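Input record (Table S2, row 433):
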Amino acid sequence: MDTPLENPDLIVVGGGPAGFFAAITCAQQAARPPRILIVEQASQVLGKVLLSGGGRCNVTHACYDPAQLVTYYPRGAQALRGAFSRFQPQHTCDWFEQQGVALKTEPDGRIFPASNTAQTIADCLTAAARQAGVVVQTQTQVEAIDATGAPEARFNVRLRSGTLSLPPLAAGSLLLATGGNAQGLRLAASLGHTVQPTVPSLFTFSISDPRLEGLAGIEVKPAGLRLLDENGAVPRQPGMAQAGAMIITHWGLSGPVVLRLSAWGARWLHERSYQVDLSVNFLHPRSLEQALDVLLATPRVAAQAAQKTLAKSAFPELPHRLWRRLTLAAGIDERHHWGDLSKATLRRLAEELTQGRYRISGKGQFKDEFVTCGGVDLDEVDFKTMQSRRLPGLYFAGEVLDVDGLTGGFNFQNAWTTGWLAGQAIAQALNSD
Ligand SMILES: Cc1cc2nc3c(=O)[nH]c(=O)nc-3n(C[C@H](O)[C@H](O)[C@H](O)COP(=O)(O)OP(=O)(O)OC[C@H]3O[C@@H](n4cnc5c(N)ncnc54)[C@H](O)[C@@H]3O)c2cc1C
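Output record (flavin-adenine dinucleotide complex):
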């Protein structure tokens, strides 16, 4: 562990990716070597980086147009638009590659270290911080911050290690990079900031339904999912209907489309204790009427092909076991002959295929990535500098803000962008002192 600094120019609360990136940027861009201290409560820094992306760390995403990039953020898109025009995934890639980290882009756009291990990213950040003269103090929690206001901002920081109170520190600038941690948000509130309540984002859906039982592992590509309100309608807010790959699991539904829907619907689902109805279209983008047209045409086609029973699916793209289950759900045995089915029965089947209703009974875990939505209110932060609009000298970066992205490297990109902007602005402020 490094020796703590006395009277640092900048105290960074939180040794995660946002805190490290801000500290390194500030040290590299200041005219004279600044005294920067990162205070981390855990015994190791960058804990989430090491866990991230299933141990591989999905560093960022190959999306280089700020206008498109912001569409991956259910919360924070507007504030990030300008921020991404200054620091976006291309800058992230350039930065890591300049530090000697080779990166690779997967076909879906996710970017990982070529080594396939998150340790590469953690090692890179700790080495760059050490080289820039940034001091790190672990196993130390910031328990309270007293601030004297403008014109001469000064932060007195009270520290604790286990049950031991440590001597307080004072600094001219302070960066809160405490992630979704409740204690960090309490610090922000104690400094006069509004905090939007935190709730989980990026999770899977728990569904117990006989139609899905025994089908774990089946992938539907693409499925169309819609959250339904108490009246059976899609709620009037963005992102409540999504399409993409879906996987049936032992506990319900997962896959990119479910994670996306969980992120957009995070707050809405939380308010309903994760007990809502979901409409599933296994034949997306076909509508009910289009599916019915195919089903009505099938008896003629099937008769010609001498496949007279429903054992042969009308939709070759649908996994056979799922087809069989959905025909049973519509009250039809697969030994039925196509020619025997009434239009009403075929409509029931089309409904099951394109508008099946499932009851979500809770949220499941997605172990590769997890974030909270909520945090410091964005209207109170200047996104050019990441400085507080309430208290000069106070800065924010990363997940402590009310920003969260979809899975795919977008949450780290928020940490890199806001960390870089904060570090640069703090360096400029130090240079002009
Ligand atoms: C399992 C998992 C996998 C993930 N995988 C990915 C991925 O592949 N790609 C992606 O883009 N995102 C991923 N994420 C999300 C990503 O990790 C976070 O968005 C990102 O770490 C946020 O960075 P941060 O620096 O803002 O906060 P954090 O990484 O949470 O760091 C904050 C740090 O502050 C410390 N701290 C908090 N309060 C105090 C205090 N009072 N005093 C001292 N220290 C304090 C905490 O201990 C923590 O170390 C994943 C998340 C999880 C949980």
